[in-house]
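In this supplementary section we document a worked example of the pipeline. Step one takes a protein sequence of length 123 as its only input; no multiple sequence alignment statistics are reported here. Step two produces a three-dimensional model, which step three serialises into C-alpha cells for compact storage. The input and output of this example are shown verbatim.
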Amino acid sequence: MRTLKRNKRPVAFAFYDGVQELTDEYGNYTGEYDVSYTEPVKTKMNVSGGRGQADIALFGLTQTFGRTATTEDLETPFNTETVMWIETDPDLGEPFDYRVVAVSRTINQVVLALSEVEHDEEE
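The serialised model returned by step three reads:
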C-alpha cells in the first residue's frame, strides 16, 4: 500500500555523523564526547498517532517504540542511528525529539519505528 499525500506531515531527519572528543579551554581532552549529526533534511511522511497492535506485529513483540513514520522514499538509507524532528522544528534550534529504533523495508515503502527522546534541560 502506498502512502497518501494528504496524510503526510512535515518532519525532518538527520543521520549519525560520528563523535568528537571534547576539550577544555586549554585544549586538554576532558574524556567527554559529543555526538554529531548531519544537517537536518526536511521531508513529508505519514506519522502515526501512537502504537497499535499492527505496529507491534510489524516490528516484533519486544521492540519498544511510541510512533511510526512511513515513507515511500526507498533511496534514503534510514537506520537505527537516524534522529527525527516530529513535534519540534530544527530551524528554531530545537533538539530532535525522536530516534529510529527499527526499520522495516518493503517493496513500496519504508516504515520507521520511533522512540521519543527526552533531553536534559541543562543541554
